[in-house]
Amino acid sequence: MTIWNGVPRDEFEARRFAAKYYKNAFETGKEISHGNQTLQAAYLIAELSRQTGDHDTARQYFNTTVKMGQEYINEIRGDRTRTALARKILELALAQGKRNLAEAK
């Protein structure tokens, strides 16, 4: 519940709202460019979901981040700058994905 419509009353609720809005943008393709922005959005959905206890959604989006990250790195392997960021996002997704699995037990 919020004090004002659409305004979260605490940090936990703000994280849930953020995950919902990122998920909507990710699924509709609105305002998210192909490449590292897509990876960042998928990772943020996963991490925000993990932080709010939605471990199933977190697992789904960590897996999506890893799969898309590997494909994107292969696609742009000649661009060191973009691959460096993609590799970092992939590394974070793998680490936090393991953490999510442990927390879900």
The tally of structural domains comes to: 1
First CA to last CA: what distance? 28 Å
Radius of gyration: 15 Å
**Number of strand elements:** 0
DSSP helical segment count: 4
Order of helical and strand elements: HHHH
Classify the secondary structure makeup into a structural class. Answer: mainly alpha
Largest sheet: none
Give unreliable regions as ranges: none
What percent strand?
under 5%
Q: Which word captures the global form?
A: globular
State the share of residues found in helices, binned by percent.
over 70%
Mean pLDDT: 93
Could you give a short description of this structure?
The chain has helices spanning 11-28, 36-51, 55-75, 80-104. With 105 residues, it is mostly helical.
Q: How would you sum up this structure, described in words?
A:
- The mean pLDDT is 93.
- The two termini are 28 Å apart.
- It is built from four helices and no strands.
- The protein is mostly helical and 105 residues long.
- The chain has helices at 11-28, 36-51, 55-75, 80-104.
Helix-strand layout with pairing:
Layout: H1 11-28, H2 36-51, H3 55-75, H4 80-104
Question: Which keywords apply here?
Answer:
single chain, 76% helix, 105 residues
